[in-house]
Write a structure and sequence with these properties.
The chain has about 230 residues and is of the alpha/beta class. Helices cover about 50% and strands about 10% of the residues. It has a 6-stranded parallel β-sheet, with helices on both faces. Helix 1 runs antiparallel to helix 4, helix 2 crosses helix 3 and helix 3 packs antiparallel against helix 4.
């Protein structure tokens, strides 16, 4: 099916969004004297969307948006101590465990031992944060390269192909985000494997569709049915 398999990282190789959701839940509790949960969440979505062009993706951008949103929701009434509390909750996300999801390491080991495919990670976010998660996951040894980009645009996918010296039609992208992992990969002529995660970041929601180069599986280890 391909010569190069590119893997997303967050919520494909390890759990990430669940940790972010817990922080959002806590922020909703903190801000409950000022607004209900849905209002806080809707306002955070708007804040993150507005900040995306300047801050991009990643934990640090998320933390700044949390603080900005708290000030907005409270009309500036939030205390400095509470701002610090929110900032520290965001900072803790820089140390989330990045424990491989069930079946991930075993599947990568089989694919690596099989030897027919080159494997890379293609993920977006803040450089130091993503590098640290890769290190903590212990999965680096299975990949020949780790690409960390500011956004997964079609141009970024094409550049990955160029850097790996492969044509797009020889690549399959594996990931949990239909918006970031599936749509742009298909649009340049690559194949894709969609593995939905039980939680999706609000800014990653997208309508799904069928495609002759798209495969959907429920568990990571089902990749072996496609490649071995």
């Amino acid at each position: 099916m391909s010569r190069l398999i590119a893997f997303d990282a967050d919520d494909t190789l390890w759990d990430c969004q669940s940790h972010f959701e817990k922080v959002i839940d806590r922020c909703c509790e903190i801000l409950s004297p000022y607004a209900d949960e849905q209002t806080v969440r809707d306002s955070l979505y708007q804040t993150e969307t507005a900040n995306m062009a300047d801050l991009g993706f990643g934990t640090k951008a998320f933390t700044l948006s949390l603080v900005e949103n708290a000030v907005k929701v409270t009309g500036g009434a939030i205390s400095a101590d509470t701002v610090l509390q929110i900032q520290m909750m965001g900072r803790e996300l820089l140390h989330l465990p990045a424990t491989p999801l069930p079946g991930v390491e075993q599947t990568l080991r089989v694919l690596a031992d099989d030897g027919r495919y080159r494997m890379v990670v293609f993920t977006k976010g803040e450089l130091l944060d993503q590098q640290a998660k890769m290190h903590r996951s212990g999965l680096n040894r299975y990949f020949e390269r780790v690409f960390i980009v500011s956004d997964k645009t079609k141009e970024a996918y094409r550049q990955m192909c160029a850097d790996c010296r492969v044509m797009p039609e020889d690549v399959v992208m594996v990931g949990n985000s239909f918006k970031s992992d599936i749509v742009p990969a298909l649009s340049i002529g690559a194949s894709a494997v969609y593995i939905p995660f039980h939680i999706t970041w609000a800014l990653e929601h997208a309508e799904t569709f069928d495609h002759d180069r798209l495969y959907q599986i429920e568990r990571f280890e089902e990749l072996l049915k496609l490649f071995i």
